[in-house]
Amino acid sequence: MKQGSKKELKVPAIKDGTVIDHIPSRVTFKVMRILDLREFNQAISVALNLKSKALGKKGIIKVGNRFLTQDEVNKIAILAPKATVNIIKDYEVKEKINVDLPDEIHNIIKCSNPKCITNNEKVKTSFSILSKTPLQALCNHCERVMEAKDITLI
Ligand code: CTP
Ligand code: ZN
User: Which residue among 38, 53, 77, 115 is least enclosed by CB atoms within 10 Å?
Assistant: First the structure.
């Protein structure tokens, strides 16, 4: 076999846990933040700037011994609507979950309206998803409609 044509994993396979794949490279660390993985004490591998036909450059996160809930998976969709979440048990892919935006997003993203009460008082943010593609999120406090480009995490 010619060098370079081998299909080898860029990040080692895991025995048990979750692999989050097809993350746009530039939001990979934000996905870690959304899932509170920065505080997690089991083995985590992260790879950035891997080649992907669909995304250009993608990121992958592999978390040992943690199985994400559907709620957690759905939060990923705010940043990475094409991500796939693979549940690995005994080295096998047992389940492949596509992320799906929740109808409501509470206290994860900021409102882009500087006058919104959530930016001025201790009030949690709350958005209703009006449209998934393209993303449109309505602030339930000030009625500002935000698009993907306006989104920043709390
Ligand atoms: N994976 C892993 N450890 C395992 C099994 C799989 O880290 N024990 C990773 C693979 O490297 C891949 C992801 O889990 O990033 C999904 O595995 P698989 O479905 O086998 O790969 P693909 O067919 O390439 O997935 P997709 O179709 O979602 O691109
Ligand atoms: Zn607002």
Answer: 53
By C-alpha distance, which of 91, 115, 104 is closest to 138? 104
Kindly give the distance from the C-alpha atom of residue 3 to the centroid of ligand 1, in angstroms, as a whole number. Answer: 22
Tokens 């891997």 sit on residue = 50
93 Cα nearest atom in ligand 1: 5
Per-residue pLDDT tens digits for 64-83: 999 998 888 988 999 999 99
pTM for the full predicted model: 0.88
- Bridge partners, residue 47, by sequence: 60
Structure confidence by residue, pLDDT tens digits, 20-31: 999 999 999 999
Cα(54)–Cα(127) distance, integer angstroms: 29
- Tell me which DSSP letter residue 150 carries: G
User: Rounded to the nearest whole angstrom, what is the distance from the C-alpha of residue 133 to the centroid of ligand 2?
Assistant: 21
Residues 101 and 129: beta-carbon distance below 8 Å: yes
CA-CA-CA-CA torsion for 85, 60, 154, 39, nearest 10 degrees? 90
Gyration radius from the chain CA atoms: 17
